[in-house]
Write a structure and sequence with these properties.
The structure is a single chain. By secondary structure, the chain is mainly β. The chain is built from 1 helix and 5 strands; from the N terminus they run βαββββ. A 5-stranded antiparallel beta sheet has the order 4-3-2-1-5. The longest helix has 4 residues. The chain is globular, with a radius of gyration of 11 Å. The two termini are about 20 Å apart.
């Protein structure tokens, strides 16, 4: 994955039980861990526009239709 990729964020990460589509805004590595900043296409129920994920296995690259 790289910055700009379209992704789907697992419902387990969003906290509202709904998968969100979005894109990778930034990726960085800190102390051997990869952190991914994600921006959602539509805001979450609580108004969040995105999130930072420390476990990239919980997001999937969106396949082209």
């Amino acid at each position: 994955m790289k910055t700009g990729d379209r992704i789907v964020v697992s419902a387990a990460v969003t906290g509202d039980g709904v998968q969100h589509r979005g894109w990778i805004a930034d990726m960085c590595e800190f102390m051997g861990r990869t952190f991914v900043t994600v921006k959602f296409d539509t805001p979450a129920v609580d108004g969040r526009q995105g999130c930072v994920i420390s476990n990239p296995e919980l997001i999937w690259k969106e396949e082209a239709l």
